[in-house]
Specification:
Helix 4 links the parallel strand 3 and strand 4. Strands 6-5-7-8 form a 4-stranded parallel beta sheet, with helices on both faces. The longest helix has 24 residues. With 386 residues, it is α/β, with parallel strands linked by helices. The mean pLDDT is 88.
Length: 386
């Protein structure tokens, strides 16, 4: 099974868990300009950006399977993670199937991955829990990197990057080991080691929260390196956990399976606080926090989850926020517009930059908007210090 996945960071961990459990998955997260261009050629250009990327990844992987001979495309399936709720992402399986047909792979079956996981016997309970643990482990590593790196002097960055890579290799080995990974224990030990090696003090710099859908938050090709740009402007970036987004989406879609239950359980465990790692948000907390600005029964896409994450950022005193969306994203175009107005009225001090990413346009405008919001965040920080 080919699994197009929107996060380059998380993909190796999902692959390691799938290999350990003998699932026969090929997790593909390759993303560059050629992927976007191919997606535009394969799918009508009013589809959401996430669908364009998934279609290109699926066709490229099917071609590679065909070149391998015996395990040709006739034996291949594509499992699509649908990462939004009640929006255009529901067209994603149909559009990816059409793209495969245009590329000559009409016999490749496309199915919604998480809905299929709820079917008995599709993926074992143990494998689902292992996959959830892999995502939480990857999240905790990413959170440490984002939390610590901006506060280190230039002389320590190479050392820190080497330590993160060693943690990553250790985590991948743990996920792939015969013994089921204990994500809670890994997160606790990682947090303690990060505190011991790098401390928990912060330099006086702005924290910029980033909200949006998973397909734009965790894919540097889609968001043009958003986190790196903000970090280069001297800001600490605060992303939500992918595990939180997945758990919320599956609950909103009515998908009940051990995978979703384990994700939410791990998010609840990670919400109870660490010394270094910023905590996760469980589904109940996101829904409760977001319902003030995007009532769950009315919100489309990730509207309620995005509103909940923004509210939680503001409760933490983080009032510099990037709302990142991509072309064709319903939660960006509809729910997002409905969230930002009430949010600004409730919190007049909030500095929100709404940035939309489109595969057919230059990234210069988005980069300039990020630099402007970072400049405002610094002015606010300097004003408080004075």
């Amino acid at each position: 099974m080919i699994l197009p996945f929107p996060s380059v960071w998380h993909a190796p961990f999902i692959q390691a868990a799938a290999d350990r459990c003998g699932l026969g998955w090929q997790v593909t997260a390759d993303s560059d300009a050629s992927v976007a261009a191919r997606g535009l050629a394969l799918v009508n250009n009013d589809a959401c950006y996430d669908t364009l990327v998934a279609a290109a990844q699926a066709v490229t992987a099917a071609e590679a399977a065909g070149r391998r001979g015996a395990d040709g495309p006739a034996t291949v399936e594509v499992g699509l993670p649908l990462l939004c709720n009640r929006c255009r992402s529901q067209d994603k399986p149909y559009l990816v199937q059409e793209a495969l047909c245009r590329a000559g792979f009409g016999r490749v079956r496309v199915l919604p991955l998480f809905q299929a996981m709820a079917e008995p016997g599709f993926v074992s309970v143990e494998a689902q829990r292992c996959l959830a643990a892999a995502i939480a482990v990857a999240d905790s590593l990413l959170q440490v990197r984002l939390r610590v790196r901006p506060h280190l002097p230039a002389s320590r960055l190479a050392y820190f990057d080497a330590v993160v890579e060693s943690w990553r290799e250790r985590a991948l080995a743990e996920v792939a080991s015969p013994q089921a990974p204990d994500a809670s224990d890994f997160m606790r030990l990682l947090d303690a080691e990060a505190a011991r090696l790098f401390g928990i003090s912060r330099t006086p710099r702005p924290i910029v929260g980033v909200a949006g859908s998973a397909s734009v938050l965790f894919n540097p090709m889609v968001n043009d390196g958003l986190a790196a740009i903000l970090e280069a402007e001297g800001c600490e970036v605060r992303l939500p956990w992918l595990a939180s987004i997945l758990a919320f989406v599956l609950a909103a879609q009515g998908t009940e399976c051990p995978f979703s239950e384990e994700l939410d359980h791990l998010c609840l465990r990670a919400s109870q606080g660490f010394a270094v790692i910023p905590g996760a948000s469980c589904t109940a907390n996101l829904r409760e926090a977001g319902s003030r600005f995007a009532p769950a029964p009315l919100a489309r896409g990730l509207g309620c989850a995005v509103a909940g994450w923004m509210q939680q950022l503001l409760w933490q005193g983080i009032d510099d926020i990037v709302y990142a969306s991509h072309f064709g994203c319903l939660s960006g175009h509809v729910s997002g517009a409905g969230i930002l107005g009430p949010l600004r009225r409730a919190y007049p001090q909030v500095n929100i930059a709404a940035v939309e990413y489109d595969p057919g346009t230059s990234s210069l405008n988005q980069v300039n908007r990020l630099k402007l919001m970072a400049s405002i965040a610094w002015q606010k920080k300097e004003g408080v210090r004075q």
